[in-house]
Structures are given as C-alpha cells and as structure tokens.
Amino acid sequence: MQKNILKESSYSVDKAVTILNNDGIVALKTETVYGVACNANSVFSIESVYNLKKRPLFNPLIIHVNTLEMANKIAVFSNVSKKIAKHFWPGPLTLILPRRKNCLVKDFAVAGLETIALRIPDSKVFQKILEKFKKPIAAPSANPSGYISSTTARHVSDSFGRKIELIIDSGKSHFGLESTILDMSKKKLSITRQGVITPEVIKKVVGIDIELSDNVKKKQKPISPGQIKKHYAPNTPLKMNIKKPKPGDAFLSFGSNHNLKFNPSLNLSKKGDLYEAAQNLFDYLRKLDKLKMKRIAVMPIPEKGIGKTINERLFRASSDE
Q1: CATH number of 67's domain
Q2: Which of 177, 212, 247 is the last residue of a domain?
Q3: What is the side-by-side order of every strand in the sheet holding 93-98?
C-alpha cells in the first residue's frame, strides 16, 4: 500500500488529528464522497486545499462539525433550520445559513460570504476526527476542481498521489454523490446543489415548497459548491442519453432491459437500482475515462428520485449544451 494511505484505525485517526493541528491536510471518507479536510481556522491550511484542487478562490468550502452546539457557534439557526438540522443530521444535507463572525472559521474558507455552508457528516471516521480535533473542519471533495469526485481512497491517490500527507482508507463511500445543499439564508428555501435528499423529502419535514436554483448566472459568485456549470467531468468527452453506442465509445449502461452487448462497457446497476447506480457513478466514470476512448456514451437514466441527481451530475460532466 502507498505510504500515505492508511487503513482506518485509532492510529490513523490520531495521525490525522495531529496533521490537522499542524495545519496539514488529510483525505477522509464521508457517506457522500471522499473529502480533503483542513483546519477551517487556518489560512495556510485553507490555501493548501485551494492550491491542491486548483479550485477557484470564489468557490466556498463546506464546513463540517459534529454537534449542533458547535454549529450554533458559527451559524445562525431559525426555528425551521433547527428542525431540518435535527431531522437530517448527521447526514448528506448541507445547510447555507447566516454566518456568525468569529475566530472559528476564517473568511477565506467561505470566500468572504456572509453565509456559511454547514453540515454534520454521517461518517464514523470523520466524526471521530471532529470529536478529537474539537474545531470545525473545511472539506471539499477530494478531486481536482472540475474533475470526477472520489468515492474511494484509490481515487484520491489517483488524483493527488503523495501531495496529501495522509489518505485514510475507509472503503467506498455509501451514497457516491455529494450532499444536497439547501439555502436557508433567504426567505424562499432553495436547493443550490442536488443530492441524495430530494426537495420532496425536505418538504415532507417542514411543509414548505423548495425551489431548485443550482445554476449560477454569469458574473454571479456561487454561494455554495456545485454551482459551476462544468463539473464532475472526465477528460474524455461525455454524451448522455445514448441508446446505441458507436465504435470508439466507452459505454455506461443501466438496468437489464436491453440486449445490447458492447465492449468496453460498465453497467451502473443491472437490477435498475438508482441508489446502486449513484454509488457506482463516479467510480465507473473514472474507470471508463482511463480507457482514453473517443467518448463516454451514457445510456438514458430514469428521471425520477435520485435519478434526477444522477442526470444533473452527468449533464454537468457532459459535452452536451
């Protein structure tokens, strides 16, 4: 095993906390995707993450905490946001809230915004590290900005090699898609990034309609990750809704309701399970990208439930206009 990759253990957790306390960066599994974690109160650490990912400085980072008590120290909660947080946290939902200005989170980490993107991850390793570190952690996805997200430690290593001091290998991320981001900083609640938790599910909890506003207009700065048009993209051109691939394609299929045999190809879920497809999506896109074919052709994915999120990720990754 590569020297900077360690299996999850009490030793690797302690090592990660030591690195974070010394303003270093580590890669950790969350239930969504792997993240590059740093001290949210260290300009040096935050800059290291932006430089590593080649991430635009106007694109804010998500801040991770492990308790509502810590969350209250860095964000202002309304009765509705408290209700949502208590229902969905820990879990794959990020809330954009008015920010409390104090020394716990640097302006740099949130791109100087008056709001903060915040969540409690449902990841044992991340929870252990937050509990020992006792401070907020900024952690964007562990991939070069704009490229396919990482859902395994090997993906992180493929992207960054030894540029990260420690990658903790905790197996494959459970969901395989980044968290839903819900903007609660305005009167109308809106989803700024689609994820596993759908607007319909949130509405059932609070009884309020949720808008979808996951695109940033020209000359407008994003208030959360995932709003830049070109994102999650392989180096190979990707085309969606392809029923019959051509020679030179790498084919990404779904379900068993087709008799097509094509090589090379991968099936997101032979049984047509959209959650299985979501978990496999980034892994399979990375595998097909390595083949360096003319294009990656993706079979139509049902536009329902989490399938909407899968299609949103594919659209941002595609060469379709």
Answers
A1: 3.90.870.10
A2: 212
A3: 5-7, 166-169, 26-29, 34-39, 137-138, 62-64, 115-119, 93-98, 180-183, 190-193, 211-212
Token pair for 10: 């009490």
Q: Are residues 163 and 274 in the same domain?
A: no
* Residue-range definition of the domain harbouring residue 311: 238-317
| Tens digit of each residue's pLDDT, the chain (321 residues) | 678 999 999 999 999 999 999 999 999 999 999 999 999 999 999 999 999 999 999 999 999 999 999 999 999 999 999 999 999 999 999 999 999 988 899 999 999 999 999 999 999 999 999 999 999 999 999 999 999 999 999 999 999 999 999 999 999 999 999 999 999 998 899 999 999 999 999 999 999 889 887 665 555 666 666 656 667 899 999 999 999 999 999 999 999 865 567 899 999 999 999 999 999 999 999 999 999 999 999 999 999 999 999 999 999 999 664
The residues near 79 (Cβ < 8 Å, ≥ 6 apart) are none
- Asked whether residue 51 is assigned to any structural domain, the reply reads yes
Q: Is residue 220 part of a domain?
A: no
SS3 21: helix
DSSP one-letter code for 233: B
Q: Is residue 100 part of a domain?
A: yes
Cβ-contact 179, 92 below 8 angstroms: yes
Residue 220 per-residue DSSP state: P
Which among 213, 237, 239, 238 has a CA at the least distance from the CA of 227? Answer: 213
Q: Which stretch of DSSP H or E encloses residue 63?
A: strand 62-64
Pairing of β 34-39 and β 115-119? unpaired
**DSSP-H helix ranges across the chain:** 10-21, 43-53, 68-74, 79-88, 124-133, 153-160, 199-206, 274-290, 306-317
| Amino acid in the structure at residue 132 | K
Tell me how many domains the chain contains: 2
Residue that the structure tokens 């609640």 belong to: 189
Residue pair 308/301 in contact by the 8 Å Cβ criterion: no
One domain, residues 53 and 113: yes
- Domain assignment of residue 304, yes or no: yes
